Amino acid sequence: MDTEADLFYRQLPKVELHAHLNGSVSFETMETLIKRKPHLNIEHSMTAIRHGQRRTLDECFEVFKVIHQLVNSEEDILMVAKAVIREFAADGVKYLELRSTLREVAETGLTKQRYIETVLEAIRQCKQEEVDIDVRFLVAVDRRHGPEVAMETVKLAEDFLLSSNEVVVGLDLSGDPNVGHGKDLLSALEKAKNCGLKLALHLSEVPSQRDETELLLNLPPDRIGHGTFLHPEVGGSDSLVEKVCKQNIPIEMCLTSNVKGQTVPSYDKHHFQYWYKRGHPCVLCTDDKGVFCTDLSQEYQLAASTFGLTQEAVWMLSQQAIGYTFAPEPIKQRLEKKWAELKKEILQCCS
Ligand SMILES: CNc1ncnc2c1ncn2[C@@H]1O[C@H](COP(=O)(O)O)[C@@H](O)[C@H]1O
Ligand SMILES: [Zn+2]
Q1: Residues with CB under 6 A from ligand 1
Q2: What binding partners and quaternary form does the record give (predicted)?
Q3: Which ligand ends up closest to the CA of 143?
Q4: Domain locations in the chain?
Q5: In the structure, what pLDDT confidence band is assigned to residue 349 with cuts at 50, 70 and 90?
């Protein structure tokens, strides 16, 4: 049963800006997928990292390979995307930016074009069913696939930026941070930026990316994913911190993901503290709620209990996130209004 504190975090209206589609698949949806494909012999323990468990980042990337085997057709993507959107809505998320890497699978006839179209169809169906959430999509570039695929992905994203009625709003750079170098992807990212796609880049997720981050911060990105190793105390540098601060680039923070993936030793050592104390734009996110067995309410509660945030401070965090979305201006205004309407009701009833 929910305690009163749990209730506050669940009722708190939230903005989710860093969620990978295939990492966000819930236990229940995973069960359905596993049953659909018994020949793969996949067990649930291979697709999620439970409470108290940890994996290396390399092991996390093995988990995604397993999930990709389970989600490999238009039918799967439609089901998974709709379920993920409904789950975020049920958790009190009012605005969601979902991101996903386009894949083609010869066996099922899936193409990259159909991949995006299917995600957009899921978003459309949820809207039609009046699920209480606004959803936008970021096309993900997997750094492991190199510059040609990145460029091809940017071209597709650009087509949809123009034709999706503002649902496709940006580009994500993700994938195993230990593979490849951002310099090879720079021209694709520049092209994306020039055509009006917003950039959300995973930067300094591991310590070895200092030069890459230095280079990619010149773009500059519109948001940073993780930024775990930006500051000098953890092997980053003053110059990186200065660039991020000067350009006021919001950082997407994923506490459970970083602790379970072992890039951060414990919750109290999370870099959220460093940036939040400086008054830098921080936004709490889940990253992969399915793989890391979390949800956004839990992430807010975790940040509050670890860093001693008051309910008022938690409210501010969730409200400020509206300003860091890639949503068109009228949508931001609508969200601000929603937050204002709910504020009294929720802060009073749960304090
Ligand atoms: C844990 N930290 C992380 N760091 C970097 N990239 C990550 C990630 N978590 C997820 N992804 C990226 O998202 C893909 C799965 O969702 P989609 O198939 O795109 O929907 C992974 O294959 C990886 O490229
Ligand atoms: Zn991520």
Answers
A1: 20-23, 60, 64, 100-101, 140, 142, 174-175, 202, 205, 257, 261, 287-288
A2: Monomer.
A3: 1
A4: 7-349
A5: low
